[in-house]
Amino acid sequence: MANMNQTERPPIYLDYSATTPVDIRVAEKMIPYLSEHYGNPASRSHPYGWTAEKAVENAREEVAKLVNADPREIVWTSGATESNNLAIKGAANFYASTKGKHIITIATEHKAVIDAVRELERQGFTATYLEPEPDGLVDLAKFKAAIQPDTVLASVMLVNNEIGVIQDIEAIGNICREAGVIFHVDAAQATGKVKIDLANLPVDLMSFSAHKTYGPKGIGALYVCRKPRIRIEAQMHGGGHERGMRSGTLATHQIVGMGEAFRIAREEMASENERIRMLRDRLLSGLQDIEETYVNGDLSHRIPHNLNISFNYVEGESLIMAVKGIAVSSGSACTSASLEPSYVLRALGRSDELAHSSIRFSIGRFTTIADVDYTVELMKSKIEKLRELSPLWEMFKDGVDISKVQWAAH
Amino acid sequence: MTVYFDHNSTTALKTEVLEAMLPFMASQHGNATSRHSFGRTARAAVEHAREQVANAVGAYASQIVFTASGTEANNFAVRGICNNMEPAIKSVPAQILTSAIEHPCVSRPALAMQASSSQSNAMQAKSIHVDSDCNINLAHLQKLLLTPTNLVSAMLVNNETGVIQDVAKVAEMAREHKAYVHTDAVQALGKIPVDFFTLGVHAMTVSSHKIGGPLGAGALVLDKRIDIQPLLYGGGQERGLRSGTENVAAIVGFGVACDLATKNLSAFDVHTANLRDHLEVGLAKLNAVIFGYNGLRVANTSFFSLKDIEGETLVTALDKAGFAVASGSACSSDSTEPSHVLLAMGVPEDLARGAVRVSFGLSNTVQEVEHFLLALKQELTRLRNLTAVAA
Question: Residue B276 in 3-state DSSP?
């Protein structure tokens, strides 16, 4: 871009949960499919089409391998949002007449799940938005109790995008199987971070995204289980691509990129997670030196990449503005345009103030020890400065219990 | 190296497009919704591309909704507009009219709407006839419009024959009957001038990879006064009309491709018309039937049949001879059914089965056309001899 200041040093990127850079190995695999191999994979009459189709099928195998699925169970989409919409609306509509019209999901799901369920409510479905426990995890007994005779579908994310907690998908899936409920899992934030074994997990539908795992934006996939065979109603009609489940010309270069990104994830996940855990622990111990900090979400059932912390007596927006040297977010990128406190943190029972003063640090493949140390120092100095200006902090230090203060109305 | 004569299926990415995309595949990797500098850079790039797309189609940037493909934009238009009709209009059984030559990503969502509509509120999907030159039969449209109509969808340029439709007239007629109008302009952009306001439609689909942009980006151009229901729900991107993380690199590429398409419009027309005319002079000598020949066509497309030769067989033979052509649209090239476009034009099934589509791009040369004609002649002789022996 012409208007970009080339000399300005970019901030340290700690927002890997919003999106990841494309791994250079991924980009190198993609570029030939943008230049010489530009065929339409649906063209059956010439080698341009065949080359593209072969690349698409190789990538399908790589995606399937990472999650131990059959390549025939992988349907390409434009991203996790489309996968979630296709899974939820597609399965709910297909099974409504036989199973019923009640859906269970969790209050801390991504908007693409919540809003797809809300749309079904407008169409006459009913829904339960189950509150998680204060640690962000779903209580299995409460989940079981939420199932009704007419429950058709449950949707629970594997890894939460804001707080990084990992749900017990196996246990929840077993409850669903027993009750005959279709089970969808949004795994957009999980690939390359937790091991996923779909050959053995009781999961019917699972959503994936490439751009959270060092692949390109604009490509995702939906796993549709073959045993037992799960059916979905197509949401996009046309040329009948993807065995009729999802029409539209396949974007070969993006699919190739997703395949390569998932191959790298499979091969490097174990060592990468270890390194990232070390970085996260270093960040956590540094930030815990600061008074009045609260980690949001359970720390043991959590991906090593995520740290979500509330800094009490600091206003969230001023905090984000003050720490411009690092690129972080105060919630998920999708909702960061709004100034509302995170609905995920609210669902954990956090006060508006604490929810408002939270920061999500997400660490990734290219984060270094120096990045982490710089971040700790930056946070320490900025928070100290902001608190110096804060009358609330002063009152807290003077021993006033702020929750008991009766504020005058005006 | 195979000579590529299948540009209507997809066309090579332009070098300038790739160059513009590369930074967004590497250092500029932000999520356009993020508020930090990575996000803001991505946002600025998306908004710049929106201007470029808007300029190419004669609309305002705020009217552009990015999607992942033309297919998605067409599904979004048909389903989104029909689902959001005012209850007063919805309460009377109404219909969706699509021309008989539409791409399946327009006609099939219309059929799906019909299948899913409740008994009491049945929505009917009907097809508008075309004449033997591949022009929409306006008299038939007039007749169909006597029944209350939700939406009329008519493509601007047919992907197989290249025939240009009088969409402005269709829109005028539909508006008189208070129906909404959508046009699929995927095959028109970059080949003829496309102007949203002149066409008078409420919604228009365009796609990136047909004009030298990357696969993975398309757009629906919208009259902002109409309500449209989203296809995808979630983070609320694209003013809530299309959720999902913006595919920044593809959108940037789409924008640059739009600029280039406008710039090269007359060069493309002159260059491919010359190739097409060259081809068709040769085809006439071989007694080929050229479909839509009497219609107003875009310059780059020629769709023809040779007597007693099966299209699939010929396409395969031509491929071996080093020429990539199509027997119909790529999307349906899995099926062996004759083209629905030709059947709608009243072409006999036998002749329709022989159809071969050649579609040129700026990179093709007269020499390639000469070589193609030679190869075609040789293959014809060979195939006809084979048939003679078999008989």
Answer: helix
Contact between residue B157 and residue B188 where contact means Cβ atoms under 8 Å apart: yes
What CA–CA distance (Å, rounded) separates B299 from B340?
Answer: 22
| Nearest CB neighbour to B71, from listed A34, A118, A247 | A247
Partner-chain residue, chosen from A85, A253, A324, that has the shortest CB–CB distance to B233: A85
Q: What is the largest CA-CA distance in chain A?
A: 79
β-pairing, A293-295 with B356-359? unpaired
Q: Which of B67, B85, B72 lies closest to B227 in space, CA to CA? A: B85
- Nearest residue in chain A measured CA to CA from B314: A45
pLDDT tens digits, residue range B13-43? 999 999 999 999 888 889 998 888 999 999 9
- CB spacing of A78 vs B247 below 8 angstroms: yes
Residue pair A392/A402 in contact by the 8 Å Cβ criterion: yes
Q: Which residue from A minimizes the CA distance to B104?
A: A238
Q: What is the pTM of this model?
A: 0.92
CB contact under 8 A, A1 and B48: yes
Window from A107-121, A164-178, A310-324, B50-64 with minimum mean pLDDT: A310-324
* Alpha carbons B122 and A101: distance in angstroms, whole number: 22
Facing A15 at nearest CB: one of B36, B41, B69: B36
The C-alpha angle A215, A217, A223, rounded to 5 degrees, equals: 75
Q: What is the DSSP letter of A159?
A: B
ipTM score above 0.85:
yes
* Nearby residues of B233 by Cβ (< 8 Å), 6 or more positions away: A81, A85, A111, A112, A115, A116, A118, A119, B243
Whole-number Å distance between alpha carbons of B97 and A151: 37
Q: Which of residues 258-297 of A touch B (CB under 8 A)?
A: none
Tell me the catalytic residues of A: 334
Rounded Cα distance, A238 and A194, in Å: 35
Q: Assess whether pLDDT exceeds 50 at residue B219.
A: yes
Residues in A closer than 8 angstroms to B237, CB to CB, are 334
**DSSP per position, A105-117:** EETTS-HHHHHHH
Mean pLDDT of B157-183: 97
Which has the higher per-residue pLDDT, B186 or B391? B186
**SS3 state at B258:** helix
Report phi then psi at A15, rounded to 5. Answer: -130, 40
- Nearest residue of chain B to residue A83 (CA atoms): B232
Beta-carbon separation of B216 and A248 below 8 A: no
Q: Which of A223, A212, A216 is nearest to A256 (CA)?
A: A216
Nearest to A169 by CA among A147, A129, A197, A191: A197
Q: Cβ contact (<8 Å) for A240 and B25? A: no
Determine the Cα angle at B165 with ends B163 and B171, to 5°.
165
Q: What is the mean pLDDT of residues B112-139?
A: 87
Q: Closest Cα to residue B6, out of B304, B330, B280, B271?
A: B330
